[in-house]
Design a protein that fits this description.
Oligomer: single chain
Helix content: 10-25%
Largest sheet: 6 strands, mixed
Distance between the termini: 16 Å
Length: 263
């Protein structure tokens, strides 16, 4: 099984933080064209997952136009595309509107591909910026895992691992702004099912692998992050290969890395 991940595209205004240009998105449309060509000509994945934050929020009209642009562009891919909702995507757009822009029935769902089961979760953000998976969705998750007999992989925008945030330019000392508050409960659902073999998230703008109960939790870098403060966008995407009990994650772009987990 091979699939690819693209995330935190942040199409829209450039994003500064603490006086530093962190989201170098002036050439993001070219990056997207390169990604489509790479997928169709070389990687040839079974599907692509976009892990959220398609836009750098601006206003309702521009955000809708930018999401529509990305969705239409990625239709050029010669494989299915699945979308995860990010916090920036919902700053100026309602959940129903975003669902329609994604051409989906709802923001959390599951699907099968090959011999694997895939789950997309929707992590909500409250007015005080805390992040959680609602009770209704937790019950759905339990039932969904109970129904499948396949090994399962989870996608969500925010972090589910107890990450060490030391050195993170965005979230060091601010776990409440990047990690799901009821993540221990969600991880327990994964472990109890004995079916989840990996989980993928984004949002933190770096590449990481964390392990809980022998389940790997991979964080994937933003397409446009100024990763080493040299003013160069990361141009990151990930290609994931799953063979038996081995999960290999290849980070592609200007800062290539490789992660491996074997149960």
């Amino acid at each position: 099984m091979k699939f690819a991940i693209l995330t935190d595209i942040h199409l829209g205004p450039e994003g500064h933080y603490k006086g530093v240009l962190r989201k170098i998105n002036k050439d993001v449309k070219f990056f997207l064209d390169d990604f489509v060509a790479e997928m169709n000509n070389n990687a040839k994945p079974e599907f692509v997952v976009v892990l959220g934050d398609l836009v750098e929020d601006d206003n309702e009209i521009n955000d809708k136009d930018n999401i529509d642009y990305i969705v239409k562009l990625l239709k050029k891919l010669e494989c299915p595309v699945y979308y995860v909702a990010g916090n920036h995507d919902l700053k100026n757009i309602s959940e129903d509107e975003l669902t329609n822009l994604f051409n989906q029935k709802r923001l959390y769902y599951s699907f099968d591909s090959g011999s694997f089961h895939f789950i997309v979760l929707f992590s909500r953000v409250s007015e005080d910026r805390s992040i959680w998976i609602p009770d209704e969705q937790k019950e759905w998750l339990k039932q969904d895992l109970n129904k499948t007999d396949k090994k399962s992989i989870v996608f969500v925008h925010h972090g589910l691992a107890d990450q060490d945030l030391t050195g993170n330019p965005w979230f060091e000392g601010k776990p409440e702004n990047c990690l799901i508050t009821n993540r221990t409960e969600i991880r327990n659902i994964f472990s109890t099912s004995n079916k989840v073999i990996a989980s993928f998230n984004s949002h933190l703008h770096w590449d990481k692998q964390d392990i809980h109960d022998n389940i790997p939790y991979f964080t994937i870098q933003s397409l446009t992050e100024n990763e080493d403060d040299k003013g160069i966008a990361s141009e990151t995407h990930a290609v994931v290969n799953i063979e038996g009990n081995k999960v290999r994650v290849y980070i592609k772009g200007n800062y290539s890395k490789k992660f491996l987990h074997q149960k």
